[in-house]
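Notebook entry, structure prediction.
Reason for the run: the old model in the group folder had no record of what sequence produced it. Starting over properly, with the input documented here first.
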Amino acid sequence: MKKHIRMVLAAVCAFALVGAFALAGCSSPEKKSEPQQTPEPVKTEQHEAVELQLFAANSLSKAMDAVQQLYAKDHSWVTFKDTQYLSSGELNEQLAGGAYADVLISASKGKMDEAVEKGYVDQATRFDMFKNDLVMVVGENAELAGKELTLDDIASGAYTVGIGDDSVPAGNYANQALSTVGCYVDATGKTGKDITGAGGSYDGTPLAGKVNLQSSVGNVCKQVQSGAVDVAFVYSSDVYRFGGVKVVGTVPADTHKNIVYPAAVCKDSKQAKAASDFLDWATTDPQAIKTWQEWGFELVS
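New structure, fully documented this time:
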């Protein structure tokens, strides 16, 4: 009996020992952890510092300043030199005198045609950037502020009128319109869209002696704000820019040439690519478009 028990215990021990070896054989060696690799640093695009010089029509001043600030936020390598805001004629005069610019934005198709002809800009980069309306305004507190005026009202000779001089496109457009109601005499004898609106006179018309000519639209606005004239011809965007005036009538579009603001990269630009990139962004970026609209400018689609 004792012998039988010893045999059973021996068998149990043997079985347990075999099981232990089997378990030991099946177990996997501990996996060694792979050394962690340091991720490569993300490479960022490097840009060389760029300074752009813009020549832009007077009426763009506040809107353009705001758009340039927006651009610089996302393009930190780009700075803008003191942008020159002058009448379109004066901008061309500056370029004729050897002034440097990367971009020209004119308020006149005719003045941009001249810039192309004189070789100031690269014709291949030219495009129409904005369109605008010509309006009649009075001082916001003037007696006329509650009225609506037409070109025929102006043709009556009952009011003194503020207009930009020959170097100011808004004045050229106003003269084209006034010629259709007999208040502006062009040397060619033509009227409306067929004339330049420069080089003529108001002599012998109901406006003889009643026109106050100014060298910029800003000055025209100041004249009507102060009451120096009763009515002034300005762009609709100037109402947003200057304030203090009220629109009393819109000049019919068929009495003057289409009001467009052509833009182009200057022929002598040393930063032509950067200049073109800015113009592309300024006409496609949603925030830029919103800013133009806030200042009364409509992009040409």
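Summary: The first helix runs from residue 2 to 26.
The old model has been moved to the deprecated folder.
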